[in-house]
Amino acid sequence: MDVTQEKNLTNKEVLGYSFYSVASMLGMITFTFLNMFYPIIGMNMTLFSTALLVARIGDFVITLFVGPIMEKVKLKFGGGKYRPWLFIFQFVIYFGMVLLFSDPVPGNDVVHFIVVVVGSLMVNTSMSFIVTAQFGIIPQMAGASAVDRNRLTAWNYRAMTLGQVLTSATGAFVLTWVGTIVAPPLNYLAMTAVFALFYFVGIGVLRATAKPYDIVADDAPQGMSMPQVTLADMAKAVTTNSQLLIYLLAQTIAFIGLMAMMNVMIYYWQMLVPYTHGVEPLAAFPGLFTLGNTITTIGSFIFALIGPSIGLKLGGKAKAMWIGLLIAALSGLLNFFFGAGMWALYVAISMLGTFSAALYSGFGVNYALDCGEYGLWKTGQDHRLVIMSMTNMPMKISAIIGGLVLYGLAFIGFDAEAFSAAFYSNAVPAFIDDTFVTGFMFLLCIVPMICNLIAAALMAFAYKIKDEDAALYAKENMEKMGAMGIPPLGPPEEEGNA
């Protein structure tokens, strides 16, 4: 049987690998409300946006070095190449989350600014290391098997959507309930301190699942040792890989639209729905917000079960991505014209976007891994970890650029003081009128639509790696490594499961 089509990993191993994504979504349950928390405690929106911008620029710079650091630095505790990093950053991300939802000096915007910058850096940098480690474990567990690589990424995506269902159905109501015990805004801190503990659970399961496969090359049997490379080699591996650069550019542009939408979407439920539907803000949030988000995320989970298979039938990963991006663009256009005046229609149209994401998101890091196999096949140097770490960059860059939408929110008339006063009096903020609604829907829908169209064009006309090409690269790379005396990654044959 073709080694790229073998199924070796057990279902228990695949689910053990994926469980972290459920746990991490629970750990981040309050993060959706970050843009609510700071206006509620009275921080100026422009200052808050600037603090996020500073933190995201810093995070971008740090993330550039995450792959090279993990490739070059061999930690002597915790076992393996990736598990020590997981162990360290589960603590960093926990305390970063707690710090973000702290208000140590109420009313002091200087302290608020510092807390946003430091807390965001701790959380986002931790995610860069954790996600890179999680991605690096994929070729270790799956070896050259395209089937197992797709199983790991598809179930990881499904686990993430399941986590979204759980958090969407419970997050706002739990926050509101905790607020009856601990007065706002301390309810945000209390909820975060408890739910962020899920990071320890998820990372613990991931480390246990990866243990048989996560080995340092120098300690591997049969003298396994890869050629030593420099940081310059690593940089060259990224900058000369044309297919990687095209994929990263398309991802970055698509993520800019996604981040722009995510940064303002909470206000759709808190401000626009009460204004356009004539309901009290407390009826819209948490009530309608939870209902709408739960419907959407349940759809995401269902689509995640079938999306990757449909994507493959469309002609492979690349085609699935550009078709999905086109459908997402259509969803944004429809919501701009019809989504403001009827929240149920907004949810229904958004379901089209969740389906479009399921067509390609289940392949996850396999796009970058295909580019890494291409680079190894072409140059003979293994920079797959560094290349996979670059998949963090689209999100980091988009967080910086997409965050600028908050300045746009201020430009169209958002007033943090009026918002805070309206929140505590259960009223619609005074600055909202029909002109504000139109500007808001442009930020929420048209900006992502434009980004999705550009990204779709890049993947349709410039990205050239087909699934069969990637399978060939992986197979020949494994054979070359075997010829060098390096045992192939993946499950030992006697432990494999056909």
Structure report:
The protein is mostly helical and 498 residues long. Helices cover 75% and strands 0% of the residues. It contains 21 helices and no strands. The model is unreliable at 219-229 and 492-498 (pLDDT under 50).
Question: Which SSEs are present, and which pair or pack?
Answer:
Elements: H1 11-27, H2 34-40, H3 45-63, H4 66-72, H5 83-100, H6 109-142, H7 146-181, H8 186-195, H9 198-210, H10 231-239, H11 242-277, H12 281-313, H13 317-338, H14 343-361, H15 366-379, H16 384-389, H17 392-402, H18 405-411, H19 416-425, H20 434-461, H21 467-483
Give the helix level as a range of percent.
over 70%
| Largest sheet composition | none
Give average pLDDT, whole number. Answer: 87
Order of helices and strands: HHHHHHHHHHHHHHHHHHHHH
Which class best fits the helix and strand makeup? mainly alpha
Provide the β-strand percentage band: under 5%
Number of strands: 0
> What best-fitting shape do the alpha-carbon axes yield?
globular
Low-confidence stretches: 219-229, 492-498
**First-to-last CA distance:** 10 Å
Compute the number of helices. 21
| Rg (CA only) | 23 Å
Short summary:
By secondary structure, the chain is mainly alpha-helical. The protein has helices at 11-27, 34-40, 45-63, 66-72, 83-100, 109-142, 146-181, 186-195, 198-210, 231-239, 242-277, 281-313, 317-338, 343-361, 366-379, 384-389, 392-402, 405-411, 416-425, 434-461, 467-483. Helix content is 75%, strand content 0%.
